[in-house]
Amino acid sequence: MEVIERPDEMQRRALQWWREGKVIGFVPTMGYFHEGHLALMRRARQECDVVVVSIYVNPLQFGPREDFQRYPRDLPRDLRMAESVGVDVAFVPKDEDMYPEGFQTFVEVTELTRGLEGFYRPGHFRGVTTVVAKLFNIVLPHKAYFGEKDFQQLRVVQRMVRDLNMPVEIVPCPTVREEDGLAMSSRNTYLNAEERKAASALFRALQRADQLFREGERRVAKLKAAIWDALSDEPLVHPQYVEIVDAETLQPIFVIEHPAVILLAAFVGTARLIDEWLLIP
Amino acid sequence: MEVIERPDEMQRRALQWWREGKVIGFVPTMGYFHEGHLALMRRARQECDVVVVSIYVNPLQFGPREDFQRYPRDLPRDLRMAESVGVDVAFVPKDEDMYPEGFQTFVEVTELTRGLEGFYRPGHFRGVTTVVAKLFNIVLPHKAYFGEKDFQQLRVVQRMVRDLNMPVEIVPCPTVREEDGLAMSSRNTYLNAEERKAASALFRALQRADQLFREGERRVAKLKAAIWDALSDEPLVHPQYVEIVDAETLQPIFVIEHPAVILLAAFVGTARLIDEWLLIP
Hints:
Chain A has helices spanning about 5-20, 35-45, 75-85, 95-100, 115-120, 125-140, 150-165, 195-215, 220-230, and strands spanning about 1-5, 25-30, 50-55, 90, 105-110, 145, 170-175, 235-245, 260-270, 270-280. By secondary structure, chain A is α/β, with parallel strands linked by helices. Chain A has two domains: about 1-175, HUPs (Rossmann fold, 3-Layer(aba) Sandwich), CATH 3.40.50.620; about 185-280, Pantoate-beta-alanine ligase, C-terminal domain (Pantoate--beta-alanine Ligase, Chain: A,domain 2), CATH 3.30.1300. Strand 5 (about 105-110) of chain A pairs antiparallel with strand 5 (about 105-110) of chain B.
């Protein structure tokens, strides 16, 4: 596996692959890999001729009081893991090459980013869409793989790709979970043992709603009440929002008649965790 | 010459050219061609394997009180002219395909767009960068040709391309002028005979400044005074701004020590005209 640091070199390589007719698969990440990342890379490996993973903790998508500084990083381990699943190139750019002096261009999705994560993390999605647009132009992928765990991010990126006619296929991949159901996340490393145990309440709350849904409950108010109820049993979990919205538009709904998604965010200790669960009637 | 209306069909064609190793030249326009447009197309014809011209009056770059509705249009004439200079494909998209329901993604250059045209036409450059980003993703050009007449637009597009790592080379082309020096513009059609005659005052004012500059004058205040003075001789010309700025950064300067550019806008009758003139010490 090759490691490329410079955007212009990465783009030259990508253009070469295009000339050779290679199908490029791309997994954009912030590193500190877990099985969720590896699942994206394995899928890309199956479907594409060459696989690029980017490892870049993008400062633009962190708020001023967020965890940019302490976000976990372990590049040597990441590179070993990426190589172990057959990644061809790890693209590991530097801040000064991604955002050189004078940088001033931003990509913004305006509606889908207003609520949910966008409400609690102002500017976050502008940072995400800007860096993803840059990465797509550098890596020139035919297919790009995104986890459903960051569900709103997935919808925002899909919207950007469609609105700006980007010639790339977004491939959503299911959330990968720990044994007790906790969604895998690099931020789980912030949890101490007690918090780690408490964090599984998020999954249990989603499961409780799923059970009610399967038993026929279609009223969002009832399902949300059950989730809040389940979460309130766990004193270490401090939910920020629990919403059930249309799975395509992320618009509020009252009764589930089309595919819907539960989206929630909660602080557990200093870790801000998010999760998602699809409800398909 | 082929005419393509649908963005997805245009993109399929562009991807086919990429597979064939063809170099794609692109001239984005709002149509109603004049010699300035043709100069861009001829240059693209010389330098590229295939040449695409887009003809699209982009509603997103017009303000609510601007001339979107009455902007001149003559597609049959444009197609004949494009064919006459060897264009391969005219891309002529429809509003509902460029901005379908739910469209909500914008590309914005923040600093370079604050002053000059950006001050008098709020939102204009956001419309320009958004549509150019879309067109680049649809046509996938290796080289794109822009006139220096819209000088700030050129710098804004160059900045966007650089900041977002777009794999395209921007080729600036000199302003083409009428016999009396008036910069060619589709908007010149708004001028009646008397206004048309008066409009040449813009060029004469630029020439006056250029003469002083060549005689050694480097003080921006003196040069601007000479331009305002020359413009004020012509009662039908109502200047909106006259600025002399760094030709790269478009930042204000007081004394010309590096390449600078005179940028001005003026109403002549109902036509809002702009012009530019480089001053290279």
